[in-house]
Amino acid sequence: MKLLKLFPVIFLVLFYQGCEKEDNTVLNEELIFRNSYEIKIPPFKYALLQGDTIYVRGDLSFNSDIIDTVPSTPVLSWEPVESEIVCAAIFKESIQSDNHLITNDTSDIVWIWHSGLSAGKNGLVKFEQGVSEIDPVKPESDLRAEPLNQGQIYYWAVWAWDNSGIEINFSSRELKFVVK
Amino acid sequence: MLRTLFVLIFCIRIFYAIGNDRGYLLYNSSCGIPDCRFENDTSFKFCINGQVLNIFNEPVDSIVVIGELPDFKDSVYSDVNGFYKICVPNEKSRRAQKMMLRFVKEDYKPFDTTFYYSYRDKDVYFEVKLIPKYKILVKGRVLAGNMPVENVEVIISHNKKDYRVKTLDCYYDDENYWNCLYQGMFKHEIVTDDPNDSIYLYFSKPGFRSMQYKFRFADYTGELVKYKMIYADSIPGLPDNSFNLKLAYPLSSESGWFLGLSYYRLIKTGNFKRLAPGIEISMVTLNQNIDYVTFSGLETSYDTTYITGMAGPSLLLYLTKPYIRRFCAYLGSTFALSFRGAESVYQPFAGVRFFLDMNKSVSIDIRYLKYSYDAKRYRFNYLGNADSYFINKSDERLLINLGLQICF
Q1: Smallest CA–CA separation between B239 and chain A, in Å?
Q2: Which of the residues A111, A166, A171 would you substitute to probe the B interface, choosing the one with the greatest number of B C-beta atoms within 10 Å?
Q3: I need a labelling partner for A40 at 20 to 30 A (CA). Which of A15, A48, B47, B104 fits?
């Protein structure tokens, strides 16, 4: 009989659907999504066709008074992350986020690349490999991004989802550069 | 001549009377026991002392020693050392008396002897050696499957004598622990003269088929013999209440676990006792893999598990007599309300049950289940976490439930 009394308890313990609690653990406040793991952007350099070499300080330039200078079709690089769904974008305004979503107007995005595009790879993307906007209807060729305006400051970041594409798992700091 | 004869007889009686007194003095001095004379009796006692041994020279206690004269009978028991003393009257009027001495105990062959004594005889010491009979301690344990069965009536029949014992139950021992060491066990001592005797064992208990075993006395090795009883085809005194646990394992790709707890009470309407109303509470899980489009060219999927609970009244109808042990078929239906949204869910089911023992059974049934639930879906957002929303979906399943039932 004691076992009989325990059955409802076991039943409730096993099958009680608890309240879903979102995981809001802050991992790094400097990231655009604070509760995500960091995508590191180490310093990198690349050579232009003219022979010039562009140095980008990456995470070292974060909160620095000195802004990296890049050409109008810059190259973006970061440490590859373990995710199938990665996105990198250049904004003309500072990136605003509520930790779950970037709240900037989509018109602030002047260039975007994601891992679903045919060119570019997770960790290194040329400007030509990105597009100007996300439009699943239009082909990639119709979405070529215009070179960036000279003398203007732009902001960029990288973020990546879990493998199901539901939650942001990784993100970088917001970095900025000026186009020479 | 006749006169001379009377005188002679008178003289002889006087002589015996004098001898009697002498004899009394002799007894008194020889045995030294003050009660060598019966109370209110002028006659003497003749006492036989002795020891009863067995053929292994071991003293035998509790032997009944019977001294028997034609008109007198007395008996004593031998003590722990086998000693006995039995006294019989030794009337002076008799020259010699025929005495029969018997030594009787169940597990020894009886010993009888007869002898004559006269009032002149002194006490005698008489040692006997008895031959023990064959003796075994029949020990057994009654099982049903691998479970000991208590309170089984065991009739041990030997030489047209029946001895009834019952198998033991668990008990609280001296240290107040629940002790089941001897559960289902019985023992009985059997004594015989002939080792070729047959011993019959009859086992009976309500709910079990009666059994009979037979063995030869000489074949018993003294070991604990296990006897397996077989359940009868019906259960006597089946309790009206039952508690059920039902479980279904996911069989198809989009199904999940089912767990149900139910209580039924068998009611009697006239001579019809097959209807059992009750209540049921059940949970069903649904596992789904949803295709999900993120960026163009990047299609993924995610897994979701939905848990839906429902509870409500249930009705059970036994198609066969509910006390049948095997293949008791039933139909039933639960009219439940889901915990979320209070949506009515109708769950008809049909199955059979098999009793494992007197009150525990397993059941297998097929249940139809159709219910609706709020399915969570996601809409990809390339600027952050996906947006979630709910859509109403329904799940329809045919479940095969495995159940455990306890009647009480």
Answers
A1: 14
A2: A166
A3: A48
Residue reference for tokens 């049950």: B353
Q: Give the integer Cα–Cα distance in Å for B237 and B241.
A: 12
Q: What is the CA radius of gyration of chain A?
A: 21
Q: Which two tokens stand for residue B15?
A: 């002589």
> Among A33, A104, A136, whose Cβ lies nearest the Cβ of B296?
A136
Q: Identity (one letter) of the amino acid at B214?
A: K
> Which residues of chain A lie closer than 8 angstroms to B407, CB-CB?
none
Per-residue pLDDT of B223-267, as tens digits, reads 999 999 999 998 888 888 999 999 987 665 556 888 999 999 999
How far apart CA A32 and CA A78 sit, in angstroms, is: 15
| Token pair belonging to B144 | 């049903």
pTM (global) more than 0.80: no
- The overall average pLDDT reported for chain A is 83
Contact assessment for residue B63 and residue B103, using Cβ atoms and an 8 Å cutoff: yes
Q: Which of B294, B308, B390 to mutate to test the interface with A (most CBs of A within 10 A)?
A: B294
- Flag whether the ipTM exceeds 0.90: no
Alpha carbons B292 and B286: distance in angstroms, whole number: 18
